[in-house]
Amino acid sequence: xxxxxxxxxxxxxxxxxxxxxxxxxxxxxxxxxxxxxxxxxxxxxxxxxxxxxxxxxxxxxxxxxxxxxxxxxxxxxxxxxxxxxxxxxxxxxxxxxxxxxxxxxxxxxxxxxxxxxxxxxxxxxxxxxxxxxxxxxxxxxxxxxxxxxxxxxxxxxxxxxxxxxxxxxxxxxxxxxxxxxxxxxxxxxxxxxxxxxxxxxxxxxxxxxxxxxxxxxxxxxxxxxxxxxxxxxxxxxxxxxxxxxxxxxxxxxxxxxxxxxxxxxxxxxxxxxxxxxxxxxxxxxxxxxxxxxxxxxxxxxxxxxxxxxxxxxxxxxxxxxxxxxxxxxxxxxxxxxxxxxxxxxxxxxx
Length: 350
Known about the structure:
Layout: H1 2-32, H2 37-62, H3 66-91, E1 94-95, H4 98-119, E2 123-124, H5 126-162, H6 167-182, H7 187-219, H8 223-248, H9 252-277, E3 280-281, H10 284-311, E4 315-316, H11 318-339
Helix pairs in contact: 1-2, 1-7, 1-8, 2-3, 2-7, 2-8, 2-9, 3-8, 3-9, 3-10, 3-11, 4-9, 4-10, 5-9, 7-8, 8-9
């Protein structure tokens, strides 16, 4: 028991540090490539902070632990919106871009509905996994091409405006740009930290899943509960660190992009990879309790975004953050009651 506890603590600490270095390197690479902040958050930061979930669920699938593989993915999605976004908004209200309301969140809702449909037969087959991975590939191609097209149009508009500037203003711009680039990590260093961070993410995730399974076995707690709580929160800590750091720097697009991108990765790639490695039997409570809550939280976020877009200048307030946190507290209390053998209520389906 002592070695499992020590492994859990060391694994979480190493996970946070390695994810931070990975995100720093990935963000620098993306910035130097001229990607939009929202796309950086969704693709680069979202991938980096979801790497622990991918590795943990893949290893759990290899070891025949479907509860941890699925619980980790969907539990992380719940933690991302209800806990991480809630805490971030409580620290500082977050601005919502129009693209998030009309494009990214509706796509995420559709992806969640697709997952429910595929899991309805209580099995994640290799065909289901391939469908999830193909869907993710299509979404990423669409998002990247859309962002590049929008950046090109914005650049063309900017260039036409620059053409009307005086020579003095142009020379001033030329002096500012190199200074801005100096603030970004050099490409060589960024690639080094990218690789080091990824390697340590894999190692720390392996240590984490070993410790979590050991603790679950010792206390007789089901794999699903461990995956939804300890492992899900642990692998979501990089998202929390990235979100708090971004909001303190007023990088609101990175905050939302990180949360949405991570949930895309968890739903499609994490489950897809785990299902490709080994078909996963699905407990019916995952569909009605956990995936149902993921869908509900995503719809609630969509409603909040529409409301704030009309009434509060696009800012998610601390009021919305408090609601998200309370939902997570109630959800965790319910899971705790199951562990204690006195569930607050039971789900009956099928």
